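Re-running the complex after MR caught last week's input typo. The corrected sequence lines follow. Everything else is unchanged.
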Amino acid sequence: MPRIACLRIPKFQIAVQQKHEQCDEVLYKITERKLIADLLNCSPKIKVQEMGVILLDASGLSLRGGESKFCHHVLKTTSMAGFTDAYIGIADSAFAAMIASISKHRRINIIENDKDAQFLAPLSIKHLNLPDDIEDTLLVLGITNMGKLASIPISELNARFAKASEIVWKPWELAQGIDNRQPTLPALEKVFECVLDLGSAASQFNEILFALKAMLDRLINDLKQNGLLAQELIVSLYHETQKFDERTLPLMQPTNESKFLLEIIRLSLNAKPLTRELTSIKLAISRFTNEKWEQTNLDKLENNSKDTVSESANTKLKQAELLLLQRFAARLGKSKIFKAQASDQYLSENAGVWVPIANDSINNSIKANILPLDLNYLQEKGHRNMLSDLVLRPTLPAPEVLVQLSNAKPAAVNYRKRWYKIKCITTPEYLSSQWWSNAISKDYYKILVEPVNAGQQTLLMLLTHDKLRNNWHVEGIYD
Amino acid sequence: MSPVTKLREHLENLFPGQWINPKQRTKTLSTGLAFLDKGITRGLARQRISAWVGPASCGKTSLLRSIIGRWLDCGFEITYIDTQDKLLASNWICLENTENKNNQSPGKFWVVRDLAYKDYLWATEALIRSHVFDVLILDMDFSLDNQGSIKQADKQANTQVNWRSNKIYARLQNALSKSKTALLLLTSNNHLPPSWHFYTRLDFHWGTNVQHTQGLQGNTMLLPSINCSISKDGLSHNTEVPIIAYAANRLFTHSQVPDRRSAKT
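Corrected-run output:
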């Protein structure tokens, strides 16, 4: 009698995110592969059913200390891999084992031999994940649990619910404790890495250029044969047997162009020169994805040849932008190219946020600062070709200045150890905000000043009076 | 000038963004400002270095922003190297137009920030050689601190990259000659490289005429005119540029919000 164990990690994605401070599908898969590699010590046959749900072969365990010992061994291995919140269920069928692992009160739930149907009978039919209409129909008919469903003759259920291709209605089989899903031997993990011993010490990129070319050619050939594209490259540099440098080079767009990858490595080595001589190099493609192929729409090509040409020109442009972003990321470490995004904030300095162009560089702190704003309304109602005020260049930190008053209005200001006479001034605009966190109460004056001593330039400034602290600042200069 | 060209220019003035097509490669980029487009400069030259010179507060960035808005309407792609990291994002948010006029793809305005001194030249060259951008703006006041003197760190770095050197401009000109980009240098008088590197040079400072916008309780806006001196190929021309702007609606005159944090009795 085959026995199947189901390991369930309910907060799998959250645990991965906490460990790596980022989240994406590829990272989940990589972590899952590592966990499976660890679990191979417990059972040779393993199958990932869904994210965080893993089926293991648990047959013949009576000779190895029993199923309970096996469960403890699996949970210990999982815990050592960093997933402490895990549950395990063992049954004859995969479905029953999966349901057994859902139990919140018992971390280990073992269903005895030939008792699957008995275990499933009192449980709700919601575990079967039926389509909503069928589930509603069954509930209306009073079939609330799997035991009642299993007692109905299959011929009646087949006639009503089964599709043409189905010989037996699958949910009925599951309710009976019959499930064909079995764990299998895991597929061999593909590893794309290459190590080269130079035979002598090198310290310049030019000295290792040919070695890198040869390694990249080999790796890229392997990738192409498997229909894959590289997403991330790891370059490890060794002196004798000691690894002294490792660089992770994420790619903004998957590629299998060796020339492009060589350029990325060159930029990385130019940006951060080697600290010591190297004697061997290891090149690994740590992330990869399947190659995608697009089929050309021939009808469109014939009808709108001009449009297609312009579209392809646009696509090329996007490629050029991606290449540029990749160059910046490789040379400067992270994205340094930004665009301005509006944020619905009260203070003018917070009303816009610089957002990196590369999506992967947008971290949570940037996202938290952005409150979305409907710019279409502004563009419809506003005057697009008119300036909204002049461009302010803030002086950071805003220097405190001495102000001479005349009739309670600023008349002269001492800025950077020079006296400026105020030629024109606006009426103050009062701004107070965020009294619940950081109290602000300021008067804003726009002033046009000319220096007392001749030969210096006229300036247009933003002068503020902080009423809470009773001091004056020049917050910026209009340019 | 042919009547068709005249008509196109007239229509462009009436309906900005409708008649300039970025795919039509021209030697100069029309700015939408008559004194630049019809004067001795004939717009901003592609594949050339132009310089806008003026002290810290002279109106050159405000003028440039209005031109960038028009270029983006026409679908041009623009990048700005903010070497001082002093541009406020809120000043540049409404420039990119999401509407698709005349089947043109909308323009892009990217800003390069947080660069180290040694990377400015590399970034400028990389942006030019990418063949993506129509206009590249380099703010050249990177070595000046708030008091107008050269930063200590940059003094040391100056030994590696000297922006007054002819070699730098020869490299940039070489990169430009193989691209479609117009390079615009913004610089103050203090840090001016030799003038023969520039195809055109514009000098700015605030004019004497000041426009006041009256609100309910007095002046709400001050808009001094900008004086501009254009020089190219030994010719020069002085002009006054009036600015039209509307008061920003971000500051409000109201009484202070009461503090309700006091403990309840």
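None of the earlier attempt is carried over here. The longest strand of chain B covers residues 200-214. Chain B has one domain: 27-241.
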